[in-house]
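Minutes, project check-in
Item: structure for the 114-residue chain
Input as provided by the requester:
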Amino acid sequence: MPGWSASWCRLLWVDLETGWSAVQVAGDVRALRRLKLGDLTEPFDPDAGDDFVDEEIDIASLDLPSRHIEAAIGLAVTPDSVRAIWQIHQADWTDDLTTIAAARVAALEKGISR
C-alpha cells in the first residue's frame, strides 16, 4: 500500500484517584488565585482596642477537605477541639493522624499553644 507505514502505540495505566485529587487541588488553587487584597484584609485601627490575640477560631467546626486535617489538628486550641476534628473526619482518619492528634492534645494539656 502506498503511503502506508508501520505505526505503534504504547498503552499506559492511569492512576485515576491521584488524578482526581490533583483536579481538586487545582480547583482550590484556582479559587485562591481569584482572591483580591480586599478579600483577605480589613483596615487596622489601633484605637479600636481589638484584642484579636485572644480570639479563638473553632477549627473543629470548619468543613475542611481531608487533606487539611493535619493542619486543623495543629491549629486546635483545646483538647476538645482535637477530639471534635476526629469526630468530624473519622472516615478519613489514619494512624498517623492519631499520633499527631495525641501529641497535640498532650501539648495543649501542658499549656503549650503552638
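Outcome recorded: DSSP finds five helices and no strands in the chain.
No further action items on this chain.
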